[in-house]
Structure formats: C-alpha cells, structure tokens
Amino acid sequence: MKFGGTSVADGSKIKNVASLIKRFYDAKNEVIVVVSALSGVTDQLEKIAKKASEDGKTSDVRSFMKNIKERHYSVAKEAIAGEELKAVVEELNARLKDLENALISICHLRELTARSNDYISSFGERLSAPILSASLKSMNLSSVTLTGGDAGIVTDSNFKNARPLLDMTDIKVKERISPLLQKQTIPVITGFVAADDKGIITTLSRGGSDYTASLIGAAIDADEIWIWTDVNGIMTSDPRIISDARTLPTISYLEAMELSYFGAKVLHPKTIEPAIKKGIAVRVRNTFNSDHPGTLIVNSHEEIKDIIKAVTLIRNVALIHISGSGMAGIPGVAGRVFTALGRIGANIMMISQSSSEANISLVVDESQLDLSLNALKTEFTENIVKDIFYDKNICVIAVVGDGMAGIPGVAGRVFTALGRIGANIMMISQGSSEANISFVVNKADSQKAVRELHDEFKLGVER
Ligand code: ADP
Ligand code: ASP
Ligand code: MG
After folding, report:
1. Topology of the domain covering 2-222
2. Where are the beta strands (DSSP E) in 305-375?
C-alpha cells in the first residue's frame, strides 16, 4: 500500500492512514507500506536547495529549517500517542540536523548538483516515514522504517531520474522484506528514494513513490499493489479540470500506462511496468473515502464497452520543429535526432515526420528544451537542417482507450470535435498500440479541448 502526500498531509490524516493499515492488517493481510513526503515538502526542499545555491544566504536556510521542524514536530505530536513520540522526535532531530548541515554546505559551495538535489529532496520521505511507522506502533502494531535503499531498491546513478537495476532489486527486496513479514512487522518504506550500488541516495523522479510501491510489490510477489491517493481512483479526466469526471472501475495495464504517460498525474508513468511483469493487479483508491472500490488495473478486462476511456492533458511541454529541404531522402536524420537528444537524457514524448521528409516535429519536457535545442544545433552543423525552432505555448492532449484499436472513425470524431471549438492542431500522433491518439494544441485552447472531447465521448455519463 502506497500513501501519497495529501494522504499524510497532517497529524490527523496520518492517524487515519495508520487506522486504515491496521484495518487491513487485522483482516489477516500482510501489509507493506510505502509513504510519500508530507504534501508540499518535496517542492519546498527543492526550492530551498536551489535558493541556497543561488543566494548563499544561511539565514534563509535557518528560517526554512524552523518551519519544517515545527511542521513535522506538530504532525508527530498529533499522530503518535505515548512512549513512541520521544523516540521519533530524536530520530527527526537527527534527520533535521543532517538536512540543515547539507543546506548550509550548499550555501557555502554555491553549487547544487543533481546528486546533492537528490540527497536534499530525499528528506521529505525520510521525515514522514518514521512518523507513520511510530503512529502504527502507538496502535500496538509492530513496525520499522526503511529507506528505499534499505528496502533493497538499487538504481543506476542517474540522479533525479534513477533507473532501478531490476534483477538486483528483486533479490534484495525479497531478502530484506520477507523476514519482516514473517515477524508480523509492518515495513514503512520511503517512496521516491532509493540508492545506487555504492549506497549513494538517488530518487526515482518526481511522483516516484507510486513506482517504489510497484517495484516492492513485484519483488515480493504481492497479491495486489494498492495506490492510496486523494481521489476515487483513475478518472475519465483530471477532476481539477473536468468537474463531472467519473471514476473508471476497471482499466487495462495498457490503458493505465498510456494515461499516466500522457499526463494523468494520479500514477507515475513507470508504475505499471513491474506489475505487468508479474501479472499483479494494481488498485487506485481514495484514502479519504476508503469504502469506495476505486479503480482496478488488470491485464485485460471483460468486453470493451467504451472505445475511449479518458482524456488527459500534459502541460509544461515544448514543441520543436526541425526542417530543411535537404533532409528529404537523407537516411539517418531521425536517428541522429534521437541520438543527440538521448545523449543529454532528454525524453522525446512525441515525434512525427511529414511525408515530404522535410521536417520533423517533436515534443519534449519544457525543462529540457534549452538543452535539447543546444544538442540539436550541435548535431546538425551541416546544411541538411535549415531551421530549428520551438514553441513553448503548447499542451499535449491524449484520448486513451484499448477499444479504439481497429475501430474506424475515432480519429474523425476527435478532430471534428476539436474543429467545432476552433482548436488549431499543431501535431498529431498515434501509438502503434492504437490505445491512444495524442495531439498538440495551443495552451489557450487546451482546457476547452479536453472538455469538448470529454463531452463528445460522453465520459461524464454514469454507465
Ligand atoms: P498523491 O499525492 O497521492 O501521489 P497526486 O497528486 O500525485 O497524488 O495524484 C493525484 C491527483 O492526480 C488527483 O488529485 C488529480 O487531481 C490528478 N489527476 C490527474 N488526472 C487524473 C485522472 N485521470 N484520474 C484521477 N486523478 C487525476
Ligand atoms: N514526494 C515525491 C514528490 O513529491 C514523490 C511522490 O510524492 O511520489 O515528487
Ligand atoms: Mg503522486
């Protein structure tokens, strides 16, 4: 079971989470817990680290430390009863001292590497996990806290977006977690945080606690992997954009992957991979409405009733156009684009090439735009490519559903609906799985476009 940041935002919410865990544990389940940082803390840690490296003011660090200390102490006081509180406060003190020292060092060095960023941002989970574990203990359950690294997740050293070494992780997680389960102890593991093979702290990229849960679940051959969050499961669209978005009772692994890849923040894009490998069902449920069944994600499901299941939106992306009449008929241009961007670790979210072969369009994360443009300019110095330009004023929208494979007319309906609201489509792509159609529109048109598509496919209507 993984609990997200909003589920553990304060002391009473942590108590609620601990009672939930107890309820399932008492019903004769073995439970492994993965927990996120208290909501907002990872953002705050990244922000102060950046500020420290830019301004070097230790006074900023001291006032940040005061706030983070007060928040965690008061959360601990509310979530933990009796004896356990003292031990946790000692542990929090030690962690907070480490954090302060690291931030002060960054002030002096005026430098923030990806590696030190991971060390700093790991404190969110390293502070929340002991509190939840102690809250369980004060309910008379046996529990221990582990970091992702302690639990056996070993990654490469690609800081901020580390990739698990799966074979080693599988073996180590089993070795370390099984004995705890045999002793009826509930492990509370930090989400998002792992370690490389030298024991240096790494992170699995933002939102990565979901991935921690599925890595652990798969390694231990769990019966199910449960992601507890702040909505009633995976919905037909982001409920923050579409007020009548509806919970999907069941979806396939493929649909969940496409949805999370194309912006449904409710699941980290890599969550489903380990589950697929072991055929483990994933459930997404609401911590604040625990009687709701949520969404079940399984291999394939009963007869497909809906062609389109959901509409997603990705913000903070940028479109890059590469063009030049010299590109036509020259083999390897696309390959060089991929290689150049691969070298700098940029992730190409979408790509399309016109049939004239005179231009290639691609979408990357906005944070990787400058690096990507530089890499492309360095790669194409000769005359093949004439222009490389970009547009940051865009969003990617995707419609997702297994049912569209082999059904004609879906794209027609999508683009007719967009035509109705006058949205200009700047790029289109369809995965070969045919489980999604994705396209790029102007930021200004994006919310209206999601709304129109949600209505077109009647996604808000109860089935
Ligand atoms: P957690 O802190 O539990 O990991 P997140 O904030 O990462 O939670 O993800 C949950 C949020 O994802 C929801 O509050 C919702 O606003 C957003 N979201 C975006 N798309 C969807 C969707 N299709 N279904 C459900 N939630 C979605
Ligand atoms: N705390 C981390 C983040 O905010 C990981 C997570 O919440 O999944 O990105
Ligand atoms: Mg999340």
Report:
1. Carbamate kinase (3.40.1160)
2. 310-323, 348-353, 359-365
